Automatic annotation (TrEMBL):
PANTHER family: DEHYDROGENASES, SHORT CHAIN, ESTRADIOL 17-BETA-DEHYDROGENASE 8-RELATED
Annotated protein name in UniProt: Cyclopentanol dehydrogenase
Matches recorded under InterPro entries: NAD(P)-bd_dom_sf (IPR036291), SDR_fam (IPR002347)
The keyword Cell membrane is assigned to this record: no
Family: Belongs to the short-chain dehydrogenases/reductases (SDR) family.
Organism annotation: Secundilactobacillus kimchicus JCM 15530
Length: 244
C-alpha cells in the first residue's frame, strides 16, 4: 500500500532534476501524477517512462491561462486534485549591478508569480473537495541571503506559504514550504561548476551535497496524510548548513 494511494498530484518543472525525482516517487507511492514543464520533449518522454499513472502537460508556470489548462487537463483525466507541488524555478548568479530589469522580472515571474498562480488556481478546486496539500519548493536562500533575485523570490515563496496556510486551513488545505540546500541537479551543474560545488561540499556539516531523492522524501511526507497536522511550516533539507 502506497502513501499516496488514490491521490492525484500536479508537479511543476518535473521533466528533470528534483521535480522528476518527486514525480517518480509519487507514482511509486500510488499517486496519479501530472507532470508540467516548459520543455515538452523531455516532459513527454519522462511521462511515458513513468507509465500509465503519469501524463504530461506543457506549461509556462507564469501564465494564468496555462494554469487553467493544467487544472482542466487534470480534472478531465482523473477527476480530482489532491496535491500541488510548486517545484519549477530558475536561478542565476549575478551581481546586483549586473542584473537587468528583464532578468529580475523573469526570475520573479518563474519563481514567485508561478507559486501565487498555482495556489490560487488549484486551491479553488481543493476548496470544493474540502481537502488538499500544497508543497512550495523554496530554498535555503528563502531563509538566508544569497544571489539577488533568486533569494528575493525564495523569501517570497516562504511568505506566501504562511499567508496561504492561514487562509486555506479553514478549507482543509495544508500549505508548507521545503527549503533545500545544495542538491545535485542540472541547476547547480551549469557550466564549469563541479569543482566549486565539490569545494563547497566540504563546508557542509554532513560533508556532501544531497541527491534529489532525499528532497523527494520530504515532499512525499508533506503531500501525504502522514503530515496531517503540519501547515504553514518550513522544512529544511540542507545537511546542517543553516545550523552553523
Amino acid at each position: 500500500m502506497g502513501q499516496l494511494d488514490g491521490k492525484v498530484a500536479i508537479i511543476t518543472g518535473a521533466s528533470q532534476g528534483m521535480g522528476a525525482a518527486h514525480a517518480k516517487l509519487f507514482v511509486a507511492e500510488g499517486a496519479k501524477v501530472v507532470i508540467t514543464d516548459i520543455n515538452a520533449e523531455k516532459g513527454e518522454a519522462y511521462a511515458d517512462e513513468l507509465g500509465e499513472n503519469a501524463i504530461f502537460v506543457k506549461q509556462d508556470v507564469a501564465s494564468e491561462q496555462d494554469w487553467q489548462t493544467v487544472v482542466a487537463a487534470t480534472l478531465e483525466k482523473w477527476g480530482q486534485i489532491d496535491i500541488l507541488v510548486n517545484n519549477a524555478g530558475i536561478t542565476y548568479s549575478k551581481s546586483l549591478f549586473d542584473v537587468s530589469l528583464a532578468d529580475y522580472q523573469k526570475i520573479v515571474n518563474i519563481n514567485q508569480v508561478s507559486v501565487f498562480l498555482g495556489m490560487k488556481t488549484v486551491a479553488a478546486k481543493m476548496k470544493e473537495a474540502g481537502r488538499g496539500s500544497i508543497v512550495n519548493v523554496s530554498s535555503l536562500n528563502g531563509l538566508v541571503g544569497g544571489a539577488i533575485g533568486y533569494t528575493d523570490t525564495k523569501f517570497a515563496v516562504r511568505g506566501m506559504t504562511k499567508a496561504a496556510a492561514l487562509e486555506l486551513a479553514h478549507y482543509g488545505i495544508r500549505v508548507n514550504s521545503v527549503h533545500p540546500g545544495v542538491i545535485s541537479t542540472p541547476m547547480i551543474h551549469q557550466g564549469d561548476t563541479d569543482a566549486a560545488v565539490a569545494e563547497f561540499a566540504k563546508s557542509i556539516p554532513l560533508g556532501r551535497i544531497a541527491e534529489p531523492e532525499e528532497v523527494s522524501k520530504m515532499v512525499l511526507f508533506l503531500a501525504s496524510d502522514n503530515s496531517s497536522y503540519s501547515t504553514g511550516s518550513e522544512f529544511v533539507i540542507d545537511g546542517g548548513i543553516s545550523a552553523q
